């Protein structure tokens, strides 16, 4: 039986990177521009795909750990500030929605579902990406990793949605692509479905025992 039970859900929460959009190439481009500015060696797109999803600070940490074997606070701050400046200026050059995403969002809107993007990415670039791709009108809110002091896998963002929209946890569904999404939903007591095509830090998503894995969001509509 599908975990989705879409007829019983009032609120659907979506992760952004690796779930709704493939943003790895823009993250890779901006990171290498940043490393260039700091006169550090460059990284590959595949490495970036393995490092994204835990928020920008941890992304920069992973890069420095790989390049220098350590993370020095001053260098980390310098890379983070440089990366945010470059990425936030243009976060959506090659970023595209994954197959099936628009179709699913259109269906959900036609059914009057409340849709919220819940991401560890800072709110400004997250909103910019959705706007550039003409996807922003589907969402009632976009909650970035910088709105609260906690971010996924902490359940704070998810529990905020339960309270704000005055729904029960049973009326909420989380859709993500990584262990962070699964863990946040588990801690919040909310059902969670993951997509097979996401990033998940280079690990097999099945290893974190999600409730259900789908290859395409339209599979939930059948």
Structure description:
The protein has 222 residues and is α/β, with parallel strands linked by helices. It has two domains: 6-22 and 95-221, HAD superfamily/HAD-like (Rossmann fold); 24-89, Putative phosphatase, domain 2 (DNA polymerase, domain 1), CATH 1.10.150.240. Helices cover 41% and strands 13% of the residues. It is built from eight helices and eight strands; from the N terminus they run ββααααβαβαβαβαββ. It has helices spanning 24-37, 45-51, 56-68, 73-89, 101-110, 123-132, 156-164, 179-188; strands spanning 11-14, 21-22, 96-97, 114-118, 141-143, 172-176, 191-195, 212-214. Strands 5-4-1-6-7-8 form a six-stranded parallel β-sheet, sandwiched between helices. It has a two-stranded antiparallel ribbon with strand order 2-3. Strand 4 (114-118), helix 6 (123-132) and strand 5 (141-143) form a beta-alpha-beta unit.
Helix fraction?
A: 40-55%
Radius of gyration over alpha carbons?
17 Å
The total beta strand count reads 8
Identify the CATH architecture of the largest domain: 3-Layer(aba) Sandwich
In the residues, how many domains can be counted?
2
Q: How much strand?
A: 5-15%
Query: How does the major sheet shape up?
Result: 6 strands, parallel
Mean model confidence by pLDDT: 96
Placed side by side, the strands forming the largest sheet appear as: 5-4-1-6-7-8
């Amino acid at each position: 039986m599908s975990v989705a039970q879409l007829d019983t859900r009032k609120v659907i929460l979506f992760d952004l990177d690796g779930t709704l959009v493939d943003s790895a190439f823009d993250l890779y481009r901006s990171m290498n521009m940043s490393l260039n500015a700091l006169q550090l060696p460059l990284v590959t797109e595949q490495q970036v795909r393995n490092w994204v999803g835990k928020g920008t600070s941890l992304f920069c940490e992973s890069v420095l750990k790989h390049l220098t074997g350590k993370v020095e606070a001053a260098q980390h701050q310098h890379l983070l500030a440089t990366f945010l400046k470059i990425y936030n200026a243009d976060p959506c050059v090659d970023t595209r929605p994954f197959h099936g995403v628009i179709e699913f969002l259109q269906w959900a809107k036609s059914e009057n579902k409340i849709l919220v993007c819940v991401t560890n990415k800072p709110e400004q670039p997250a909103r910019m990406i959705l706007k550039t791709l003409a996807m922003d009108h589907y969402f009632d809110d976009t909650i970035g990793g910088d709105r609260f002091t906690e971010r996924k896998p902490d359940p704070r963002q998810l529990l905020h949605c339960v309270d704000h929209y005055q729904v029960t946890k049973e009326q909420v569904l989380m859709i993500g692509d990584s262990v962070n999404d699964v863990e946040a939903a588990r801690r919040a007591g909310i059902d969670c479905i993951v997509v097979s095509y996401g990033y998940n830090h280079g690990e097999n998503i099945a290893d974190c025992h999600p409730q259900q894995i789908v290859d395409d969001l339209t599979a939930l509509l059948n």
